[in-house]
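Sequence in, structure out.
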Amino acid sequence: MSTPDPADTVAKIIDKLIDLAFEFGPKIIAAVVMLVAGLLVARWLGRMVERALAKRTLEPPVKTLLVKLVRLLVLALTLVIVLEKVGVAIAPMIAGIGVAGVGISLAMQGVLANVVAGLTIIFTKPFRVGEFLELAGVHGEVVAIELFNTTLAHSDRSRVVVPNRKIVGEILHNYGVMRQLDLTVGVSYGTDLDQAIGIVRAILAANPRILKDPVPLVGTAALADSSINLAIKPWVKIADYGIAQAEVNQAVVERFRAAGIEIPFPQREVRIWNAPPPAPGMRLG
């Protein structure tokens, strides 16, 4: 039995490769060219859609979503054409993708729920970027609305990332772009209330952080044990909430002291009654 000549084997392999190159080479080159063209078209069309949407009053997440959908659609069509060009059967592949998609969707229920909830938030617009929210036990200013989650910013510069599925269907308190301060100051019962309320109104009018519309609310809130409590409830922008509260409190203390208006502290009056001594011979107890 003769041993195969290595040179003949190499020659046969080279001939086979040449035949395959002539058979599939043009298809592969055409597929690569089509794929590159599809990528370029997707990028170009995405930019065109982005420019067109920039002229419309849409939420930033909606614009981003539409641009991505257009690019993905172009890429998907390009991929289908490329696979068909190289001779890959499309129908069985689509059926396989469908079966795999069912399994993937079951494994990613939480992620898909966030996406659906994100789309619901984006299109129903229960809140917008820049508004202050209380929801799901957290609060903060909305700084980003994305498909998977919503990001809130606290006044201490920390951030809270809330999954969108935790937002949709829950009770949501939307303060909008302004908040109302809820301040209280007590004055003694001998105070001229008109004078005290007038001083508070002047303080609010002079503070640039206090909004003039809506008009601040000032009045008697309660008749407490040791004081008459005045309610001070002006509106401020979200960013001014903390500093405005501190400024108003300090100004009230300083102006009340200057005007001689007493801010009483809680106190209790205790009277000791001295009983007369018992009569001689009287038993106690």
